[in-house]
Amino acid sequence: MRVTDRKVEDWLREDVGHRDVTNHVPGETTGRLVAKESGVAAGLDAGAAVFDYLDVDCEATVDAGEEISPGDVLLEVEGPAESVLRGERVAVNVAGHASGVATKTRRAVESAREVSDEVAIAGTRKTTPGLRGVEKRAIAAGGGDTHRLTLSGMVMVKDNHVAEMGMAEAVRHFRDEKSFATKIEVEVERPEDAARAAEAGADIVLLDNMTPAEVSEGVEVLPEDVLAEASGGIGISDVPEYAGTGVDVISMGSLTHSADTLDLSFRTGGQ
Question: Most exposed residue of 2, 37, 216, 224, measured as fewest CB within 10 angstroms of its CB?
């Protein structure tokens, strides 16, 4: 899921518009992407892709997943001033957003480790349209699991499928449709339905919108070879309690849809 030239073109077209006069600046210059607050670095590959597209020399000075502090330089660039100025806002936006996702993921992982070294913190498909690749890599940089990248990555039998076909028939239907390597996950909203999902053939059972006590009940009735996942409105402060239920995975849509942007700035020349 690398950032393509077409993706960068879309980002630049959105920001630059049809006739950019603001950045008609002669000569060559240098620039630095600088952290203004502490967090976890991510999205630097995407920021570098913007400058590479504009034929600006760019080098990352920290690695994705590295803890950063105010004043740390994340990227250094050198090239035509017009191109550097055209790319800087897009690079700041995408790297700042990705670093915010990575930072929130790292804090969630740290909260889980207070209780368990085994449970994984995962993202969801609640990503920003057009930025899924950037956000999923940011989750990985923060120490989280990307979960399925697309619908084709895993079959998830959700409430709408059950409403249309019933749980057992939905699992049977998708088991006939899927490739041999594809896992089937079944979403349930009551602890007592976890066993039914496992009996129907689920590889993973998603215990959705349950309290930690209810999640514990659901985990207890599952066979050892069936993974348990908790999800549904779980915040970072809730993670330790859910991590203590015995689940294998805690998935959090808030890692992407509610992450604060990490404050970064871009400085040119001798600034």
Answer: 224
Top pLDDT among 165 and 110 is at 110
- The token duo for 86 is 């055209």
SS (H, E, C) the chain: CCCCHHHHHHHHHHHHCCCCCCCCCCCEEEEEEEECCCEECCCHHHHHHHHHHCCCEEEECCCCCCEECCCCEEEEEEEEHHHHHHHHHHHHHHHHHHHHHHHHHHHHHHHHHCCCCCCEEECCCCCCCCCHHHHHHHHHHCCCECCCCCHHHCEEECHHHHHHHCHHHHHHHHHHHCCCCCCEEEEECCCCHHHHHHHHCCCEEEEECCCHHHHHHHHHCCCCCCEEEEECCCCHHHHHHHHCCCCCEEECCHHHHCCCCCCEEEEECCC
Q: What is the C-alpha separation between 151 and 128, in angstroms, rounded?
A: 15
CA distance 253 to 125: 7
pLDDT tens, residue by residue, 99-111: 999 999 999 999 9
| 21, amino acid identity | V
| Chain centroid offset of residue 97 CA | 10
Residue 168: alpha-carbon gap to chain centroid: 31
pLDDT at 3 over 80: yes
Which two structure tokens, joined as six digits, stand for 186?
């079944």
- Residue 158 contacts residue 193 (beta carbons within 8 Å): no
Return d(Cα 123, Cα 147) in angstroms, integer: 6
Residues forming the active site? 89, 126, 158, 187, 208
